[in-house]
Amino acid sequence: MKENTTSTSIFKVFPILFILIILASFGGVPYAKDLLTKLPADAVGYIPPDSMLGMLFVIQLSVVTVLGLILSEKVSLGAPVLEAIVTGKTHISWSSMLLSSGIIGFMLGSLLLVSDYVFYRVGSPLSFFTTELPPWYKGLVGSFFGGIGEELIYRLFFMTLLVWIINLGIRNKGKTPKAWTVWAAMIIAAILFSLAHLPIASSLSEVTMIVATRGILLNGIAGIGFGYLYWKKGLLFVMIAHFTADITLHVIAVLLFG
Question: pLDDT averaged over consecutive 10-residue blocks of the chain (258 residues)?
Fold first, then answer.
């Protein structure tokens, strides 16, 4: 039964995720290149053509997705909704899931925007309100990479990997991890998520204490929020929530304040 479940995750769920990977990879290229062109040339280096950059994203995301699916089956995490779709075992209430995940994503995105405004008011040189962001339509397509790509990397892969490693360390032979194990992995993954955003911040502004605090706090809040949703609701739910949060930040906020 365990081998069959693993086979279902990889060979039936992965093709669905691969379609999303292509959408995220090539959707994220215009937004990424727009940000890169605003940085100093010595901070960027060689920028591949759009097609090559998109393919590099596809390869990277495909590898972490396969590894994440393999590990997630061992610790009762992963993509339960997608598994239910491919197996037909459970009825999915799409309207309820889309509405609830969308509302949560909008609320989280709004919280981050309000928090960022506080940092702006206390003098942070880096903020949504001071930095020239890519236009809303590039933010729209770029949100697919945030919602899909970042969740595959930081939740399906990194967070799941950390839970699996901790499980091995404490010799937990059951598939269901202890709550503190998931929280530890969630926080570590959120820290990695925050640190991954610091290089772009350092290229846009001098990394002062307030800039570093802003980046770690805002991305940490997002990382823990998305990690909790991944744990409790699964990959597809958190992808939709993350996408909606990014739409709030990179489309709605740009249209209102850009």
Answer: 53 92 90 68 68 92 95 91 82 88 96 94 86 83 92 96 92 83 94 80 76 89 95 96 96 86
- Is residue 103 within 8 Å of residue 111, measured between CB atoms? no
Structure tokens at 239: 């992808």
